[in-house]
Write a structure and sequence with these properties.
Blueprint: E1 2-8, H1 11-15, E2 23-28, H2 50-67, E3 68-78, H3 85-88, H4 126-136, E4 140-148, E5 165-172, E6 186-187, E7 200-203, H5 206-211, E8 215-218, E9 224-225, E10 230-232, H6 248-258, E11 264-267, H7 274-281, E12 285-290, H8 293-307, E13 311-316
Helix pairs in contact: 2-4, 6-7, 7-8
Length: 321
């Protein structure tokens, strides 16, 4: 039986309780900067500047570094935002999932971009600020994966394109690491080709007829190919979550490539428990951290309903004063 443990409280503090090297992969989607107030003291995403947000986010992943095995991987889904909420954050009055209830910042910015304050309508570049900061901390930035959304949230903008993608960054502690590329191969374009599974083929063209020669060429046609770096996945909601959740189909390849059956998967921003549900369905164990106890209970309910008797789910609220 696989297990799921959800630790309630500040991610940095709770992660310090876990053993070094106890996690094979970490798959997560942190709160996005300036997009939503989750109503929790100490939550990430409410920092006054992008720099402060990135620094606080990196502090969480400093602890993840300690917990990851030496051949471990880290997968981080992170979206962007604009300097003025009314100019790009889903029109300012909507959350990342498009429903009412977003943060209502006053427009921040100056006539001149100082590097510390974002101008109105200026794309902040949060994902890449984060990626470069992680490199500065010693992480290998192995890949930027594009999450292409066929059904993005509509935007009423007329001076730029509708945003229909986010990033998933693959980061590692070392230059060599566990990565099961076979587990995430995708169907090849020529999977149904009649030559599939064959090697050399006899050439019977004009040259062979004239010269009396038989020319052979080597043709490689396979059912599958290496997974590409653009992942097309529809956005999906979770009926009991009143906040944006990433779809299970987006993170299944991360769990499959980054861990083996029986390994432990970590999510320091557990939310509704999507990562936990996927991990247990794939035969892994799960440890999640969640600041909001209500969300932790939601995760417990979700994973229990999805796995039933095949999973043991516990919530650990830590020591209270």
């Amino acid at each position: 039986m696989n297990t799921a443990k959800i630790l309630v409280g500040d991610a940095v503090a709770r992660l310090r309780e876990l053993s070094e090297g106890s996690v094979r992969t970490c798959v997560t989607s942190p709160p996005y900067w300036g997009l939503r107030d989750y109503g929790n003291d100490g939550q990430l995403g409410l920092e006054p500047t992008p720099q402060e947000f990135v620094e606080n986010l990196c502090k969480v992943f400093d602890e993840v570094w300690r917990l990851l095995a030496d051949d471990g991987t880290l997968w981080v889904n992170l979206g962007d935002s604009y300097g003025n909420p009314s100019a790009g954050r889903n029109d300012g009055n909507h959350r990342a999932d498009g429903r009412p209830g977003g943060m209502s910042y006053k427009a921040t910015g100056t006539a001149k971009h100082t590097g510390k304050v974002m101008r109105t309508k200026d794309l902040v570049g949060i994902p890449w600020r984060f990626a470069f900061a992680m490199q500065d901390r010693g992480w290998y930035l192995r890949q930027d994966i594009i999450w292409a959304k066929p059904n993005p949230m509509p935007e009423s903008v007329t001076d730029r394109c509708t945003k229909s993608h986010e990033y998933v960054f693959l980061l590692t502690k070392n230059s060599t690491y566990y990565f099961d590329h076979e587990a995430i191969k995708e169907p090849a374009i020529h999977a149904n080709d009649r030559r599939n599974g064959k090697g050399r083929h006899t050439y019977t063209g004009k040259r062979a007829e004239n010269d009396g020669l038989v020319q052979q060429s080597f043709v490689t046609v396979n059912d599958t190919r290496n997974k590409r770096s653009v992942w097309t996945v529809n956005t999906k909601g979770y009926k009991e979550a009143h906040f944006a959740v990433y779809p299970a189909e987006l993170i299944e390849p991360c769990v499959k490539a980054g861990s083996a059956v029986g390994d432990t998967v970590l999510d320091p921003f557990s939310g509704s428990g999507t990562t936990g549900e996927v991990a247990l369905k794939l035969g892994r164990n799960y440890v999640g951290c969640e600041l909001n106890p209500d969300y932790a209970k939601l995760s417990e309910k979700r994973i229990t309903e999805a796995l039933g008797m095949f999973a043991e789910v516990t919530i650990n609220e830590g020591v209270t004063a």
